[in-house]
Amino acid sequence: MSNEQFKNQGLYSIIQYSDNPERFEYVNFGVAIFHENLSQVTCKFSEAPKEINRVFQISLGKHFDYLTESIRSRLSEEIQNIRDENSINKFIFTRAGKVRFSELKPIAIESIDASLEYIFEQLVGKQESKPRNKTAKKILAEKLKNSGIDQLLERPKPYKLITGPTIKPDFGYQNGSYNFIRAVSLRGSIDSAVKEVGGLNLEGKWLYDETNGQSQKKLNVVADTADQPTEFVSAVKEIFDTPKVKLILMSDINPLIEDIKLSVH
After folding, report:
1. Residue 239 in contact with residue 201, Cβ under 8 Å?
2. How far, in Å, are 76, 101, 107 from residue 12 at the CA level?
3. Residue 141: CA atoms inside 13 Å, Cβ hemisphere, count?
4. Residue 204 has pLDDT above 80, yes or no
5. Which single residue of 30, 33, 96, 110 could bond 15 by disulfide (Cβ 3.0 to 4.6 Å)?
6. What's the confidence (pLDDT) of residue 129?
7. Do 115 and 30 contact (CB within 8 A), yes or no?
8. β-pair partners for 104
9. pLDDT exceeds 60 at position 51
10. Over the Cα atoms of the chain, what is R_g?
11. Distance between CA atoms of 36 and 41, rounded to whole angstroms?
């Protein structure tokens, strides 16, 4: 493509970051447009590294500002040596490290500012943080409050077992035995959910055995299994099919609510 053809056209590249380049996982955080017969370069970056931090579980902090300023400065210096598309490609393909430029693509330009904003919005965007899911404890608390029984419940202190672990109940109430209520999320990774289930089951059995007698205590596990397959939920129910530990699904806590209403006066 000749320089004459670039009068109303340009080339753009997406600027990407990876904390682990060897895994080929990158986050878009900037755009560079080469225009004015490739004699000028204009770029735009995300205001903050929120998406980078989220994806790679890091905190770039002020280093992100230094990084973007360095790229901007380097582009300004390199544009003096760029005369055609091959020159830009040479610059792009020789980049190494955690920042890379995507393959060049053409763009028709009427206004460089408008073109830059459009590409940025389409391929980088505002990258606002995704809303976090409510914790299992918060979901349970809302259900209990909506049922009008939240004020009937106690907030017991953590209970240290002789065997070592400490049970951290969210709520408690008396019904013959003293019932600890613990809300737990079993969403997401099944491997993690299995470990959670196993640990709670053991803690509940140890609690029951250690307090057997007049001060009998039992663990009631209220589990949020919203995104888990039916087969997994059924298997978990079987594990807790014992009088020592009780499993209650977050999606079906009416029996628990009724028991609390009958037991607490």
Report:
1. yes
2. 15, 10, 7
3. 10
4. yes
5. 30
6. 46
7. no
8. none
9. yes
10. 29
11. 8
1 versus 251: the higher-pLDDT residue is 251
Highest mean pLDDT among 102-116, 165-179, 184-198: 165-179
CB atoms inside a 10 Å sphere around CB 13: 23
Decide: residue 252, CB within 10 A, 0-12 exposed, 13-18 middle, 19+ buried: exposed
The per-residue DSSP string of 175-198 comes to ESEEEEEEEEE--S-HHHHHHHHH
Q: CA dist 239 to 77, 199, 204, Å?
A: 66, 11, 12
107: which strand partners? 10
3-state secondary structure of 265: coil
Contact between 186 and 234 under an 8 Å Cβ cutoff? The reply is no
Q: Is the pTM of this model over 0.85?
A: no
**AA identity, residue 136:** A
Q: Please tell me the predicted confidence (pLDDT) of residue 133.
A: 67
Half-sphere exposure of 182 (CA within 13 A, CB side): 24
- Residue 38, Ramachandran bin (φ over 0: left; ψ between -120 and 50: alpha; else beta): left
Can you count the helices (H) and strands (E) in the chain?
8, 11
Which pair of structure tokens corresponds to residue 98? 């955690």
Nearest partner of 129 among 48, 43, 244, judged by Cα: 48
Structure tokens at 190: 């099944």
